[in-house]
Amino acid sequence: MDQLKNPSIFIGVQGDGIISFGSGQPDLPPPENVFKILPNFRQFKYGLIQGQPNLRKALAKQYECCSSEDNFVITNGASEAIDLIFRVIGKPGDKLLLHKPYYYSYPTLIEKAGLKVVCTETVKGKIDFDDFDKKVRGCRAVLINSPSNPTGRIQEINTLKKIEKLCSDLDITIISDEVYKDLIYERRNYDLKGPHVVTINSFSKTFCMCGLRVGYLWSNDKEIVQKVIDLKTLSSMNTNILAQEMAYEATKTPRSYVDKQVKIWQERRDAIYEGLLKLGLELWKPEGAFYILPKVKNPRKMVWDLYKKHKVITYLGDWFGAPGSIRLSYALDIDKIEEGLKRIGKYLKEK
User: Same domain, yes or no, for 259 and 242?
Assistant: First the structure.
């Protein structure tokens, strides 16, 4: 069990009868139209650091409060966008506020950028605004992730509006990680707005294009955007231009494609949620994304034994700032979800 330091032990593990509730990688197909350029694509020279103009223009049309395609930077997945923004947002020692539970890479990347992590509590995965109000003062920036990985919970619109106003009044930057914004079951996404809001998104989840590594960030704060471009120039340079062209084709995909995907995710959500409840586990009902975070006894032993004895991969809640729990991704078909639940049930009976 000493190997359970982070998810790297499980990432990419498959085959040999393994049921993986681990990595959040959609198993659904990308839109068919993204493949149409492949036979004839021949542009393999360096691209613009900021990203290809056609893709940025297409993205700018999707955000009502965005003034220009020049406000966008195309990145190597949302992960690079997150890393870059942490590294340019402040100076060493500045504080950045997270809501718990959080995506496992946030604290490490924040600390590597020389910033200090401050955490605000949530109630059943929802931000406690009173606690947020107390903790945010003195912070350089805050990070909002809704829908959330690892909880699948969405933040209430009234809370988000209060956060907008408070951060605007205090001149605090909001970083909004919205990679699951199209995968919400209850309502459409609420786009955070303000003079210093940085929005991060990706083609990985909505369009099932994880391996192509196309993400982006945008902000109406041109100074932040330019700092990101300057740093990216010295690190990864341009994002893969073939992948960007495929992402551009994905922007032409009708909303009906996304609606069909969401219906499938919701059916899977219902199956795993009801299944875990029947096993006697305590959990919050996901409202978006494709993650669920049940509370369990002795989670470290459970994660290890499920893997070694039952060939089931789950993630340790400690990695997400959620001790006493395990995280499951339901990005797999219903048959595998049901088989995985049977194995988890067997483990619980053996205890």
Answer: no
Q: What is the 3-state secondary structure (H, E, C) of the chain?
A: CCCCCCHHHCCCCCCCCCEECCCCCCCCCCCHHHHCCHHHCCCCCCCCCCCCHHHHHHHHCCCCCCCCHHHEEEEEHHHHHHHHHHHHCCCCCCEEEEECCCCCCHHHHHHHCCCEEEEECEECCEECHHHHHHHHCCCCEEEEECCCCCCCCCCCHHHHHHHHHHHHHCCCEEEEECCCCCCECCCCCCCCCCCCEEEEEECCCCCCCHHHCEEEEEECCHHHHHHHHHHHHHCCCCCCHHHHHHHHHHCCCCHHHHHHHHHHHHHHHHHHHHHHHHCCCECCCCCECCEECCECCCHHHHHHHHHHHHCEECEEHHHHCCCCEEEEECCCCHHHHHHHHHHHHHHHHHC
224 and 179 within one domain:
yes
What the block records as the tokens of 41 is 């694509």
CA-CA distance, 298 to 4, in Å (whole number)? 13
CATH classification at residue 218: 3.40.640.10
- Strand 326-329 and strand 291-292: pairing? antiparallel
Residue holding tokens 């590597």?
112
Domain membership of residue 295 as a residue range: 7-28+255-350
pLDDT along the chain (351 residues), means of 10: 80 86 91 93 93 97 88 98 98 97 97 98 96 97 98 97 97 97 93 93 96 96 97 97 97 95 97 98 97 97 96 97 97 96 96 67
Q: What's this model's pTM, rounded to 2 decimal places?
A: 0.95
